[in-house]
From TrEMBL:
<dbReference type="GO" id="GO:0042138">
    <property type="term" value="P:meiotic DNA double-strand break formation"/>
</dbReference>
<dbReference type="InterPro" id="IPR016024">
    <property type="entry name" value="ARM-type_fold"/>
</dbReference>
<dbReference type="InterPro" id="IPR044968">
    <property type="entry name" value="PRD1"/>
</dbReference>
<protein>
    <recommendedName>
        <fullName>Protein PRD1</fullName>
    </recommendedName>
</protein>
Amino acid sequence: MFFLVSQQQDSDHLLHESMADPNHQSLSPPCANGHRSTVSLRADQGGTFCFICFSNLVSDSRTRTVHVSYALHQLSISLSEPIFLRTVLSSHIHFLVSPLVHALSSIDDAPIAIQIMDMISLLCSAEESSIGEDFVERISDQLSSGALGWSRRQLHMLHCFGVLMNCENIDVNSHIRDKEALVCQLVEGLQLPSEEIRGEILFVLYKFSALQFTEQNVDGIEVLSSLCPKLLCLSLEALAKTQRDDVRLNCVALLTILAQQGLLANSHTNNFSSMSLDEVDDDPMQTAETLVARPCLNVLFAEAIKGPLLSTDSEVQIRTLDLIFHYVSQESKPSKQIQVMVEENVADYIFEILRLSECKDQVINSCLRVLDLFSLAEQSFRKRLVIGFPSVIQVLHYVGEVPCHPFQIQTLKLISSCISDFPGIASSTQVQEIALVLKRMLERYYSQEMGLFPDAFAIICSVFVSLMKTPSFAETADVLTSLQESLRHAILASLSPPEKDSTQILHAVYLLNEVYAYCTAPTSINKTSCIELRHCVIDVCASHLLPWFLADVNEVNEEATLGIMETFHSILLQNSDIQAKEFAEMLVSADWFSFSFGCLGNFCTANMKQRIYLMLSSLVDVLLEQKTGSHIRDALHCLPSDPQDLLFLLGQDSSNNQELASCQSAALLIFHTSWMYNDRLADDKLVLASLEQYIILNRTSLICAFSDSPVMLNLVNLYGLCRSLQNERYQVSYSLEAERILFHLLNEYEWDLGSSNIHLESLKWLFQQESISKSLTYQIQKISRTNLIGNEVHNVYGDGRQRSLTYWFAKLISEGDNYAATLLVNLLTQLAEKEEQENDVISILNLITTIVSIFPTASNHFSMIGIGNVVHRLVSGINNSSLRTSFKTLLLLVFNILASVQPGVLMIDESWDAVSIKLLNFLSLRDTAIKQNHEDVMVIGILSLVLYHSSDGALVEASRSILLNSYLVSAIKTVVDVACSKGPALTQYQDETDIGEALAFTLSLYFFSLRSLQIVLAGAVDWQTFFGTSTSLETLPVVCIHCHNLCRLMLFGAPQIKLIASYCLLELLTGLSEQIDIKKEQLRCSSSYLKSMKAVLGGLVFCDDIRVATNSALCLSMILGWEDMEGRTEMLKTSSWYRFIAEEMSVSLAMPCSASSAYVNHHKPAVYLTVAMLRLKNKPVWLGTVFDESCISSMIQNLNGINISREIVILFRELMQAELLNSQQVTKLNRAFQVSNSDKVSRYRF
């Protein structure tokens, strides 16, 4: 604060010679006026300073001002010398007090007065000085007497007095003789028109008041209190009129002191009345009427501070704002004062200061402190806040960047108040601006970059809630993005505060609730941005809030617990949302039922009980996908808080008590749902005992409600689950009476297993009960019908997963420790015997097919209990029965069973041979070749599987019949001939017709027949006949496709045909190779025939399909081996194609890019062919050129753990056998194999 520099002094007599020290000996001659040397001092600069002469000079009013000024100047120079000053202070200082005060009070010349005041200040501020009190006493006396009047001399005295009062080493208070007279004179002086004098007076009054209150001077405080009303009135008038900032500062400083001490508040009670009576007496110009017309203090105060608030000096603005704060805050009930100032537009001035503040911290702090008080006047301040809203947003940017800013809360409160009171005031730009700032604050708070006060965190959450209610909130996508991030940061910050604060989680959850309510409102639920926001809420709950809540529930108070559960409940109420279903499953996987009753134990209140049971009812609705949760809601008011009490209610007779019956239904539902997800609320022994008691006591009501009540099915599930748990522990303690009643109900009354929700263990226990076979057979038929129409409900639970009833029924059959498979096959047998109800037959066949598809091992169980006999019966009567339309379904079932059944099972079941022969006969009865229809293709596929099993010794007789079937020989020949006749147009022909599927299945049948020949017709087939011409085909006893036709299909066929034909040719040549090796035969084939085959196979070595290329290379390798045995390899010596293959492979393996295993695999076909050529007796000479020393060295250098394969090892072994590796290369090769981590080559060493 700016303080005026003025002090006080007193002067009432002049210096005389008698004041000199008589004991002091003269060290120098007297001065020119004859004064003794004892009152003189010699200066360091030369000459002597006589204090009596100086006193006479400055005290004589007739002395010319130039002489006075010179004397003061010379004294000032002398006092600047330390020795001189020290001597003056110790011996001669009292010679100067009276003359200086007298001169100051009698001289009008301002420069001389300034010189005198500087001199006094210098003397009083010196360390050894003790003369300041004398100056204070003399000057205060002068001011108190009023003798000088209000003139320029009085102004100098005031200023000097102010300077003295500002000196800390002067005891001012004790040396003012008449405080009341002094203050009265000063207050009267405030009425003078001179702003200079008012400024000096205000400063003196300010310093005087500060001294009284600091030193707790009772007399001074009483003086100020008595004169305060008049002083306050005159000060405010002076403040309102002045345009000088220094006067404003002094006046504001005085008023602030008075406000801090409560004198302004006391003035309100007096309300100028006492002051007015005195003034009427003292001033005849004032009347009672004029005083009544004077504005009240609050209005006068409001008008007075507007000028300082508009000042360009920020110091004046800050001090004025502080004055407003103290003025209002000292009131016990400040609402009236605030109301007046707001109505007088003071808030507008403050908002303008904020706008122009340039984010200066001190200015912002002072403004916000006052505005926070103004906000108490809610109604009137709201309108002013709307005007200043942009300025507050500007301040929010600054406050949001400062960690723990002292006025963080006040700024946020202003933002919140404006948005909540006037939702439409914020534009979309402002909403986006506010959201970004708040998001950044929460983000930095969560990352611990900045601090937030607890109340600030709460207000931020509240501001976001208010923002969501503004019309312009969702106009920009960035706002919703900011809301998502803010929500996440708020939750995370509240879950891990440096110091536990339970209120933060409460506010964060409040925000979470409001956000979810916003994005699920009817007007926004289908908007893309709101869907993303809803997903964000659920993700925050699932990923962060739920795990924390489960782990720290004992540290959360009841209010926060209720808030969190309310959020979770809101999510569950949106049960059509997939994420809501996932969230519900997450809850039950975390044992939510047990957790909920644990919360009831911690907070056993009506609100908690209601919230928990309502949430459990919604959880049941979502999980069971039925509105079964209504049972819990209906019994809400009478349900207990302890699961043990639920069991007690369950074991009671409710025949004549509807309320108890409602509680039992709810209890069954709760235990049923919790146990479905392995959340055991009570021991299974206790639950079983209660269930048995419930069944026995309520048997009559169960009969009435069994067929149409899902609660009864819940009873069956719970009972079966408890019994299965006892069986696992080898405990057989149960009630036979209860079991008999339940089985009777299951057998005699209709129920639907597919419409209920059941646990896997309970389902398994049911199918282990032979006593209810009749009922279970009926349920299987229902399952098959549901599976047929595709409307099956996912309602079986086990292993923590919810699967379809068909899935778990299939699992039961695959496990085999129940009657499920037997009941299913018996049902199919019954339907087959009746030869009616084809739809039921088809549904059963489809169900078995589905079961085998899900669990292939189930085919073994079906086969062992005689499903082959049923299939044979159905196949046998397919042409003369009403079951003709089920043939396709039957074929699909047979195909799936044969594709998955173990050969050992087929060996002990002769019915499958009969089935195979029946299907072969079905195909043979066709009057044309194989048709391109579904039935023919499926039969061919089944016959292929029969041949496949024959290689393991199963279905041998059926396979022999297939191989020697004349129809198949003719049909396959026809299909292949038609395809081969198309030549290069075969691919186009396949695209335009359906021959592709028939050809693929025909080739597959041929492939498996080649594999079966060596088992079924071992030694009876001459493999060399497959090289014969087409005219010799009729003499062949088995199904046959010649090699040249296979080559045509490989060359011209579609990719799928190429692949199957290549496998057929490889299988054929492998069989022929084995025959040649065993019988030591020579190849009965012309060179031209082999040449054409080699041309096709050589070209396919570079086929895009690596499998076709590999098969072609292996076939070509066998042909080269046969030719080598007969010495027919001369063409290799001149063949550029084989050399090209070898060179391409060697160059590729020698390049550094061959480091990847995929690249090496691409060259495997060429490796196989190169190895075959290296193994020839008559090797081509050019192999040595291709695999020269540099090439092999590069290949070895590129070897690593990735690209070393079995084929590469064999290649280098053959190169070594061909003596194309030197010793150094062998050493490097061994080292490369040792370094490699590949297990495939660990055994190789050269």
